[in-house]
């Protein structure tokens, strides 16, 4: 994460994605919120998604909400 902190301005979209993907939550509140978001994404009808697919869906949703990748 230190490298991304230094080079964030060179690669803002990738830096934001790296921060989301590589960071470790320091409080339980964010984890509870993440599980709440996950339960809205991974419903009873989508409960057979592979872990990689679930991670990709949750990250993509987060990035879209933050406007990452928009010019």
Automatic annotation (TrEMBL):
Molecular function per GO: protein dimerization activity
One family name in Pfam for this protein: Dimer_Tnp_hAT
Domain HAT C-terminal dimerisation: from-to ranges: 1-64
Domain of life (superkingdom): Eukaryota
InterPro entries the record matches: HATC_C_dom (IPR008906), RNaseH-like_sf (IPR012337)
PANTHER family from the UniProt entry: BED FINGER-RELATED
Name recorded for this polypeptide: HAT C-terminal dimerisation domain-containing protein
Organism per entry: Rhizophagus irregularis (strain DAOM 181602 / DAOM 197198 / MUCL 43194) (Arbuscular mycorrhizal fungus)
Native organism taxonomy: Eukaryota, Fungi, Fungi incertae sedis, Mucoromycota, Glomeromycotina
């Amino acid at each position: 994460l230190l490298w991304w902190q230094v080079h964030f301005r060179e690669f803002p979209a990738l830096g934001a994605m790296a921060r989301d993907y590589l960071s470790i939550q320091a409080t339980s509140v964010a984890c509870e919120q993440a599980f709440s978001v996950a339960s809205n994404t991974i419903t009873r009808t989508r409960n057979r998604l592979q872990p990689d697919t679930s991670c990709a869906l949750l990250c993509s949703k987060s990035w879209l909400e933050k406007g990452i990748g928009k010019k």
